[in-house]
Write a structure and sequence with these properties.
Blueprint (H helix, E strand, L loop, with lengths): L9 H7 L4 H15 L3 E5 L2 E12 L7 E5 L14 E2 L5 E9 L3 E8 L11 H6 L11 E4 L11 E7 L18 E8 L5 E8 L11 E4 L2 H7 L2 H10 L7 E5 L6 H5 L3 H18 L8 E6 L1 H12 L6 E5 L15 H8 L6 E7 L5 H4 L6 H15 L2 E7 L5 H15 L3
Parallel strand pairs: 11-12, 11-13, 13-14, 14-15, 15-16
Antiparallel strand pairs: 1-2, 2-5, 3-6, 4-5, 6-8, 7-8, 9-10, 10-12
């Protein structure tokens, strides 16, 4: 048997010390099949954290497994995230202390490639083989081929602690629904891209409507359920009726376009704007909001500074503010752009997960993504910009952005 002091989970300690381990193990797996995984347990003397224990059944063909998650440091190495084996059983486990309000996604790396570290861009190639937790029914699927990542479709498991910030608005209700439309628009270079549109229920082209424009169009339109969020917010009177446009990126072109590509900026500021103004009855720049996450947050932030006559607001989630710029200079390029340029009439909603890491900046482990966000927040406020800044308990993932999006939209429109 494994000694009590070697297993942190009370549930697993009791299992390991059972007199009839075979019978206890059979009951344990029956319980897990019904209740699901991971285990979430109280920690004696610690009211701000829960003990989360990931488990895998060591079936035929499974030699080892690790957790790929923000709560375990998925950009560093599997050395600290590999599941331990409980001797005499088919149970693999790994416990980690997690803050009570945490929401994030994770996958399992079963029989993973034994690399010394998953740093820089290498982690993407290894991530193709990571899989969702078969014991967790709470999943987030991605049709990534539909957007510009160039990856295969993937499915993530969701870790959601009982006190996690509530996702109230992304589920369908019995409320009036806006119209969903799909368009194909050719850019300045002859490249076609998909654009989805949301028109609020009762849309009247004689009225002028606030506008939300999203990069990573399919992610926001489908995976993040933004049209449903807008239906619910409008029905509750939390926001005025709005138009939303979701701009997609050609396959494999997302990073190139969003990391300050001149052709995409030219398309966005001319062809796209001319098209939307001819198709929809939209308000002036003050009520036009540009939305993006990660690289999309960098693009939205830079584009608004360059074209405040087009967009008067930015919603940025987990932006890559550490980005070195088109000339690959020092980290924090877009922040320096705001330091050097005159203040414009732009307001901001910015959020970032407390568990976020960026291997490209620090070679893993000790993330400084948060410091870039805090620095940019301080720069904006010193320059006199209107800024709402939030740090949430979670990682760099869509499930967090989806849960936060309603609050961001409610906050960004002027009263």
């Amino acid at each position: 048997m494994v000694g009590k002091n070697e297993i942190e989970s009370p549930r697993l300690r009791a299992l390991s010390n059972s007199e009839n381990i075979d019978q206890a193990l059979s009951s344990f797996w029956s319980e897990i099949e019904s209740s699901g995984a991971p285990l979430i347990e109280e920690i004696e003397g610690d009211e701000s954290h829960k003990l989360v224990t990931f488990i895998v059944r060591k079936e035929a063909g499974i030699e080892r497994a690790a957790v790929a998650s923000a709560v375990t440091g998925y950009y560093t190495t599997f050395k600290n995230t590999t599941l331990s084996h409980m001797p005499g059983t088919d149970l693999l486990y790994r416990s980690v202390r997690v803050r009570n309000r945490t929401r994030t996604m994770y996958q399992l790396a079963v029989n993973y490639h034994e690399e010394p570290a998953l740093i820089g861009s290498n982690w993407i190639q290894y991530a193709e083989s990571w899989k969702p937790d078969p014991l967790n029914k709470n999943i987030q699927p991605f049709d990534l081929e539909k957007d510009g990542f160039g990856w295969a479709d993937r499915v993530f498991s969701i870790l959601e602690l009982p006190d996690a910030f509530e996702d109230r608005y992304s589920f369908e209700r019995a409320v009036p629904q806006g119209e969903r439309l799909e368009f194909t628009l050719e850019d300045n270079l002859g490249q076609s891209r998909e654009i989805w549109a949301y028109l609020p229920h009762g849309y009247d082209d004689k009225e002028k409507y606030p506008l939300l424009v999203f990069t990573d169009g399919w992610i926001y339109f489908d995976n993040m359920r933004t049209p449903t969020i807008l239906d619910n917010l409008i029905a509750e009177g939390k926001i005025p009726p709005v138009i939303a446009l979701f701009v997609n990126h050609p396959h494999g072109m997302r990073s190139k376009e969003l990391y300050i590509d001149d052709n995409f900026i030219n398309f966005f500021s001319t062809r796209f704007v001319d098209w939307l103004e001819s198709q929809f009855s939209v308000s002036t720049a003050e009520n036009r909001i540009l939305v993006g996450n990660a690289a999309g947050g960098v693009f939205a932030t830079y584009f608004a500074l360059k074209h405040p006559d087009i967009f008067g607001g930015v919603i940025s989630s987990s932006a890559s503010f550490q980005y070195r710029g088109p000339d690959n200079g020092e980290p924090g390029w877009v922040i320096r752009e705001y330091v050097e340029k005159e203040r414009q009439n732009i307001r901001f909603y910015i959020d970032i997960g407390t568990l976020e890491q960026d291997p490209a900046v620090d070679n893993g482990g000790n993330s400084n993504v948060m410091s870039f966000h805090r620095h940019f927040r301080d720069v904006l406020r010193a320059k006199g910009y209107s800024v709402t800044y939030e740090e949430y308990e979670g990682g760099h993932d869509v499930n967090c952005w989806k849960a936060n999006l309603a609050g961001a939209i409610m906050n960004i429109f002027p009263e």
